[in-house]
């Protein structure tokens, strides 16, 4: 709720208020007649016991229902009506125990004790359910707000990581070095390389404020980025892209680039050990599979180590799905859930 009261403290305060209000007529009556008189002591004790019972009764039902409703504990075995049926049976049973406890004080008035206990208990129980539902809604709203704030933070972090992946000094240095070599050699690939480099830099800036992009746009960017890498590493790096260039899917921007960049960063690429990266649809048809030969560098690559965790968090927060990471002795692969366009 706020910095001063927790939900449990609010439940306790509400329980005291409900118990006092429901017993207020008896409190006033006792005060006017027997409260200060010794012969009235049994009635006074009974009133105190009733108030304490209703406090505990209310608190129990508020917390029980709040706990179950927040966690949907009645599913899948029971529906909501079934859960409230259990609530009602608990109401009957607890009040029956209270009647059995106080009846010896008033053996001559069993019907009165029974009726008044269940009459007041019913209103206390109903009020407890209302308070529990009210607190549940508030708690869910607070959780939603917290999750939204977390999504914003994760999205911002992912955007910054994506921007760094493209504009970090190593990337620019390597790209400009390769471009300089092409220019010196008078290679026919100079203009295509410059065009692809411009496309990569432009896309990385355009998607910074977008959570999902059309798959076709991501594919154009991925192919441009792959072209730059193959120009840099030559025959030592093979990127086999078997994904459709046109598909009605959505994807978090720069997801495929991040996985390709991770493969290049963490694996040996040489004449002796060329690296092959493959992008394809998983046989199940539910995932995009990005895989590479598992040939890790002897020394860990420089980096923050947040790329894959951020990508996984983006998928979980945006779609409720998680990515799958599979590592074997020969291969490392990441499976991205397909996100259909609405």
From TrEMBL:
Q: Which InterPro entries match?
A: Bact_2-comp_sensor_kinase, HATPase_C_sf, Sig_transdc_His_kin_internal
Origin, by domain of life?
Answer: Bacteria
Q: Which residues cross the membrane?
A: 12-31, 51-69, 81-106, 118-138
The terms describing its cellular component in GO are: membrane
The protein's matches in Gene3D superfamilies, at most eight in alphabetical order, are given as:
Histidine kinase-like ATPase, C-terminal domain
- Give every Signal transduction histidine kinase internal region domain span: 158-236
Alphabetic keyword roster: Membrane, Transmembrane, Transmembrane helix
- Keyword check for Transmembrane, yes or no: yes
**Gene Ontology terms for molecular function:** phosphorelay sensor kinase activity
Pfam assignment, any one: His_kinase
Keyword ATP-binding (UniProt): no
Task: Tell me what this protein is called.
Answer: Signal transduction histidine kinase internal region domain-containing protein
């Amino acid at each position: 709720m706020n910095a001063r009261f927790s939900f449990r403290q609010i439940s306790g305060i509400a329980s005291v208020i409900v118990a006092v209000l429901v017993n207020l007529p008896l409190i006033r009556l006792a005060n006017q007649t027997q409260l200060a008189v010794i012969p009235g002591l049994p009635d006074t004790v009974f009133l105190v016991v009733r108030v304490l019972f209703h406090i505990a009764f209310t608190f129990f039902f508020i917390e029980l229902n709040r706990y179950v409703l927040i966690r949907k504990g009645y599913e899948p075995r029971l529906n909501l009506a079934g859960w409230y049926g259990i609530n009602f049976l608990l109401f009957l049973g607890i009040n029956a125990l209270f009647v059995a406890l106080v009846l010896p004080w008033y053996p001559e008035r069993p019907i009165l004790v029974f009726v008044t206990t269940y009459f007041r208990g019913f209103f206390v129980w109903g009020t407890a359910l209302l308070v529990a539902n009210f607190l549940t809604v508030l708690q869910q709203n607070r959780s939603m707000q917290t999750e939204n704030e977390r999504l914003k933070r994760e999205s911002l972090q992912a955007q910054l990581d994506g921007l760094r992946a493209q504009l970090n000094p190593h990337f620019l240095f390597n790209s400009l070095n390769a471009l300089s070599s092409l220019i010196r050699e008078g290679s026919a690939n100079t203009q295509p390389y410059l065009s692809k480099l411009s496309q990569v830099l432009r896309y990385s800036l355009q998607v910074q404020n977008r959570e999902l992009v059309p798959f076709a746009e991501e594919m154009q960017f991925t192919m441009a980025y792959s072209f730059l890498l193959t120009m840099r590493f030559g025959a030592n790096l093979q990127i086999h892209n078997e994904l459709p260039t046109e598909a009605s899917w959505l994807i978090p921007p720069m997801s495929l680039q991040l996985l390709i960049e991770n493969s290049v960063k963490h694996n040996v690429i040489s004449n002796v050990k060329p690296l092959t990266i493959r992008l394809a649809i998983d046989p199940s048809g539910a995932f995009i599979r990005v895989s590479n030969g598992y040939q890790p560098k002897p020394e860990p690559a420089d980096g923050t180590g947040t790329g894959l965790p951020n990508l996984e968090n983006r998928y979980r927060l945006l779609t409720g799905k998680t990515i799958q990471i599979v590592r074997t002795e020969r291969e490392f692969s990441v499976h991205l859930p397909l996100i259909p366009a609405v």
